[in-house]
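ok so I'm stuck.
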Amino acid sequence: MRKLCRRFVSLGSAILLFAGCVSMGEEFRVPTADMIKNGVTTRAELLRLFGSPTQVGIEDGDQTWTWAYVRAGSFRRTLSKELHVKFTERGIVKSYSYTSNLPEEIQRDTR
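replied:
not stuck anymore, here's the structure
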């Protein structure tokens, strides 16, 4: 019985070790302040800059698009970034937010 338990523990450890990384969404470029302007930037411009959104929806009656990228590894924390854009009824950016916990972006922005 002990031998069987050890085999299961060894097998489980090997599976976890070789599981590798899993990602969701498409990698997208980091938006800079000059790329998106409230009241100016259009849906077409965002499609050209970032490609198709990962999600679309409605928030407070306004259309929203979201680009999300998540990367998870077996021994690392989950890394993610998300761009969330709200549009006017004419398809112009009303507001947007960008969040990230990628170490290279945190280091760049906290210097």
